[in-house]
Structure prediction request, 690 residues.
Amino acid sequence: MILARQARASLARIHAMFVKELIQLRRDRVTLAMIVGIPLIQLLLFGFAINADPKHLATALLVQDDGPLARSFVAALRATDYFDIITAAADEKDAEGLILSNRVQFVIEIPPDFGRRVIRGEKPPLLIVADATDPTATGGAVSAVTAAASSALDRELTGPLARLAPAPAPFEVRVHRRYNPAGETRRNIVPGLIGTILTMTMLIYTALSVTREIERGTMEALLAMPVRPTEIMLGKIAPYVAVGGVQMGIILLVATTLFGVPIVGSLLVLGPLTLLFITANLSVGYTFSTIAINQLQAIQMTFFFFLPNMLLSGFFFPFRGMPLWAQYFGEALPLTHYLRIVRSVMLKGSSFGELAADSLALGVFTIVAMAVAVMRFRQTLD
Amino acid sequence: MSGADIAIEAEGLTKSFGGRKVVDNLTMRVERGRIHGFLGPNGSGKSTTIRMLCGLLTPDSGRGACLGYDIRTQQSEIKRKVGYMTQRFSLYADLSIRENLEFVARIYGLARPVEAAREALLRLGLEKRAEQLAGELSGGWKQRLALAACILPQPDLLLLDEPTAGVDPKARRDFWDEIHSLAANGLTVLVSTHYMDEAERCHEIAYIADGRLLAQGTIAEIVSRSGLATYVVTGPDLEALAARLKATKGVDMVAPFGMALHVAGRDAARLSEIEREFGEGAPQQWTRGEPSLEDVFIDLMTHLEARR
Ligand SMILES: Nc1ncnc2c1ncn2[C@@H]1O[C@H](COP(=O)(O)OP(=O)(O)OP(=O)(O)O)[C@@H](O)[C@H]1O
Ligand SMILES: [Mg+2]
Prediction:
């Protein structure tokens, strides 16, 4: 009985904070504009930039075999549209120089005796050296090489040689991705953008909430009222969960209509997990606002948190390609888990069960951040 | 006197900021239903004391209780029962008057927050401006709004930190009428102020300087305890006379009051000598007077400075 009454009173205070924050948010034109503006601008800028068709990439050939098989392969390469063979490299050193000087993005090397070794069943390597500093540009091209080689061989290996044609392929495509050990595909990026945009905006919304009250002098009156730190926190975070939901809607709408990113999985899975991710980031922002002495410091903390989220979550670099220490570090970041969730749901159609570990990680992260915030919240002016 | 009759009890409260004692061994007691004035020069530690009393600052040493609740351990009870009006306006500037009042009503869990806020607006005479943003109000109206917000949850004790700073005389009178009617209904008020006329409207006052309590009691008690003998001097050339008197041993306080000069000293016999010395054959008129509260405070201050 008493407990129920206390819970009701507590809810009433959270509601009071919630209404207050909502009114303040409504009056804050800049923030209101940010809610719609930032995700749209980010998504359009990023989306169109990465939408550039990764075809007709400058390529150099290093052909050390001029047999029919090799010639047929080169012809097939030209037919793919992916490669503009602009030059021939004299040797490996020359090829290296072409890549370093950014004149080509690929060097495709056909080793000596390629044709003969295929026929002998030795599985000779087809070496593709790719400048993978821009993984979105190289990803599609690399698979195109494999396809081109197969089709070339299918055509050439007829008659008695046909036994060599079926899979496994009688050659080996060896890809050397330079400067970035694994490639990313374009589809990965738009779902990833959802995560980064939400991280950025959610952090900023709450990172100022406590410092702002302190700097405006309203904290003194608030602290003299019978409202608990947890209630202040929940009341301040709640309106922005809704804001985050709206942003998610905008982003998804643009992603599907404008960029044609499919949503294979269910929105009923993606929605709740996204709200969890939003809450995780709001909690972090709020925690910063309880630690920071002024608004500038809060912004700086946000920035320092945002950077590793971008870099170590698997958004910029493929997660499995990072050194182990970075992977461990990345596991502690909410964006890492959310990227797995959002990519899995949107591209693979995963369900709650398959995402349990990442959801749990997000939940634990949120609770820890909130606990730190409540502990750090200064209840006195000392 | 039983504990139930005491609204504020503090003993040896001490608070330092950066090694400097801002409140020093302060002991005070306020009975329930009383209006207690809290006076002292700028930076004397009034706000700091009030903040300790409502649990916003933790005293370094000493103990205290508000309404019987310990200020160190029972802050949540204190917050529910004590209304604190900050010196600096601390309601939300980007919320309207009505929204601010509704927020307070909700936080305190009033049964019908919207109605409670409307009643407060009516009492304030602010119903026409209900939708105006609090930040756009004039200084005096901000103060009135802050007071209304303080009273809204019907506290048993009000801690008011310079509630009438910048408020016009009519509004100040209304304010004090309201305070007195609340006190008549059992509310206790501790109010800091720099105005002497307001001090005189209090049942009791406490005067602090440099964090130390220098005087406490009713005005009559404080005046008589000061032991000051006072003369009121009228006539020409008062400025020159004041300068000479200030340099005279035995004169503790010289202060102009309108067309007159107040001259006071702790040693009545010595002061009457001075009266003869300066008064005989001079164009000014010396008459015996009662020291005003202000005389006493100025004397307390100069005395303190002389000791430093
Ligand atoms: N948080 C703080 N940190 C450091 N010093 C402080 C702090 N709060 C108050 N002080 C110092 O303590 C002293 C007393 O301040 P306080 O505000 O209590 O005085 P006051 O009597 O209310 O003055 P006023 O009449 O000007 O309002 C001042 O010298 C002030 O600078
Ligand atoms: Mg003060």
